[in-house]
Amino acid sequence: MIPAIQRLRPRSIQARVALAIAVALVVVFVVVQVVFVSFVESRARAEVENALHLQADSIAREVERNGLENAAATARAAQRFIGDARLVVTVQGVDVHWNLPVSQLEASATATRGPVEVLLERPDPDDGLFSDWVFVGLVAAGVVGTGALIWMLAGGVGARLRRSVSALADGAEAVAQGRFDVRAPESDDELGRLSQAFNRMTARLESADVRQREFLADVAHELRTPVTAIEGFAQALEDGTARSPEDRAESAAFIRAEAARLRELVRDLQHLTWLDLDPPVRTEPVDLAGAGREAVARLEVDAQVKGVALLGPEGSLAAISDPAHVETILTNLISNAIAATEAGGTIRLTTRREHGEGGIAVSDTGRGIPPEHLPFIFDRLYRVQPGRDRPSGGSGLGLSIVRRLAALLGGRVSVESEVGAGSTFTLWLPVAPVAAARRERVESGPA
Length: 447
Ligand code: ADP
Known about the structure:
This protein is of the alpha+beta class. Mean pLDDT is about 85; it is low at about 390 and about 435-445. The protein starts with a helix and ends with a helix.
């Protein structure tokens, strides 16, 4: 747009709406005026001219009837009846009567009878309903009234727009400053939809913010416990409280154990942070049963130390996944199962295909999980019992990592548990395409 015109454009929404309505009204008014007035005018003029013609014709008839010498007298007599009109009577081309010319002749008609020709012209009657000044005044009042009405209408629309937009702008400013508890007023128009979307966004940001703060507070708490323990034992070593070689060795062992706990917590935190970035995953055929057997081989020693039987799955089950992530998930689930199972118990891995998913289950005969804890065990840093289950103590992040990894792989983890009887955690993954599935059936033989 031309810069000069651009500068003239009103800035406020109210002024813009008012201008738009006014322009629209003027266009409509002009069009209606042109169409209506020209139609009415042409009809009225036709009627006046018709009437004039009838009058002119009757005057011509009279003049013709009264003869040439009386023509002027007849015309003068007719003049008395037709008042302000201009009357010209011509007989054989010779004007026998005419009166003074009148200004503003609006309509005229001629009639010819033999040698007589009559011209009648009628002026615009300016003694109408209103005088010119009253008319101008009325038009001015109409213009001012219409302008005020437009301004009020535009003001209503503009005020509503301004309220919604200001609320959204204030909200966005608050979000930019890190406050997520703001909400914009909702309505059912287009701006209302924008407000609803804005409110959904701030609600999500708020809950994410709350979760992050809680998580940071929990992490700080988790870190404080081992750090305090390490400080205590180091102090004992330093000030000689732990004097005997046995006490010193015990202190050193505690420090080492707590440091290991810290290392595990930091490692799991790093892992989770990395998973939160949605890292790319490989998608390749993975034999879930084979992966289960490998995991069992890796953790067999831990199970033996605990006096627990650890049994791997048989056969094969092809799924589409990332082998490294499947390994991490199974290691976590089996480690948890070993920690939760008393000596003499059993941990068994089995595979099965169900509803288009491939599942590998880790079932133990351990202590089980109370039902009130089940909805939360996948939450970060959630522990059923705050005690240390594993030799190195659990970070409380293992199952969060498992759930996040399963989701990244396009799968999920389900859990069933009964207190005192044991738990079964099942990793469900998308199964391999038909060809791989057929190969898998052939390899494992008839069911
Ligand atoms: P941690 O790293 O402390 O084990 P997890 O996130 O792996 O934390 O587990 C969350 C909670 O669920 C822990 O309190 C853990 O004891 C409990 N849990 C996990 N697996 C089992 C299981 N197989 N049997 C009983 N409790 C379990």
